[in-house]
Each structure stands twice: as C-alpha cells, then as structure tokens.
Amino acid sequence: MSETQAQTTQALEAREKQELEGEGIRPGPVFRPDIDIVEEADRFVVFADLPGTDEQSVDVRLEKGTLTLDAHLAMSPDADWRPLHTEYRLGSYHREFRISEDIDANAVSAKMQNGVLELHLPKSADRQPRSIPVQAA
After folding, report:
1. Contact (CB, 8 A) for 119 and 48
2. 52 CB contacts (<8 Å, ≥6 apart)?
3. Mapping DSSP to helix (H, G, I), strand (E, B) and coil, where does residue 4 land?
4. pTM, rounded to two decimals
5. Which of 71, 73, 79, 90 has its CA 20 to 30 A from that of 51?
6. Are 69 and 46 in contact (CB under 8 A)?
7. How many helical (H) and strand (E) elements, i.e. helices and strands, does the chain have?
8. How many domains does the chain divide into?
9. Which residues, 6+ apart, have CB-to-CB distance to 112 below 8 Å?
10. Residue 135 domain-assigned?
11. 32 half-sphere exposure, CB direction, 13 A CA radius
C-alpha cells in the first residue's frame, strides 16, 4: 500500500464517540460532542456537532461564567427496534466551557442546522479591537 493510500484509508476510518467518564445523572451513555471555535474580530463562534438532535432537544445555558451545552436525541428508536448491526451509539451530549468576561452574555445567540449547533459569543464592545486615528500635531 502506498503512503497516499495509507493516508486516505486512515482518513476514512471510523472514529469512536468520546463517552464522558463519571456521568451518572442521566440514563444511558453521555458523549462529549466535537467542537470547533473560531475567533473573529467582534465575536467567537462555536460549532458543536450534535448528530441526531434538533433545536428543541438542545439546551444552552450561560451561568456564572460557564457555558453549558446539553442535548438528547430528537427521536429514539421504538421498543421494536432490533438492528442487525449498528455503528452509531445512542445517548445524550454534554459539554461545558469557562468563558471570558470579555463576552457580552446578553447578546449570545444560537442556531441549529443539520445536527450542528452554532453559537455566537459577541465580545464586549470595550474588548473589541478598534482603530485609533492619528492626528497631526
């Protein structure tokens, strides 16, 4: 197998969901969703992968400097569901972040599309970069 084929094969390998250890208050497994965070000049944007969820099944809370994401599957299989083979484990999602005081907590917004939660965390106006004009003396 060539090096390029090995890289392609490695890229296509299935990755296990990361299950949280020590979570005992919810029934079933609880997974840690994959997150991407992008910093823009005026805000941070957080993308959370929550497959199988919709906007009604996601709870986003911001309390005492902690951003918490909880989600459960929008639909669960019925009692007659008996798959021959599964690679996708069912469960809920949980993730917490400490956020900076630089975030305007009153302006945080969220939207959900195709199993991806997008959070907008605007920076406080006094924390955003600004251009300072230089005047002639």
Report:
1. yes
2. 73, 74, 75, 90, 115
3. helix
4. 0.71
5. 79
6. no
7. 1, 9
8. 1
9. 50, 53, 54, 55, 58, 118
10. no
11. 11
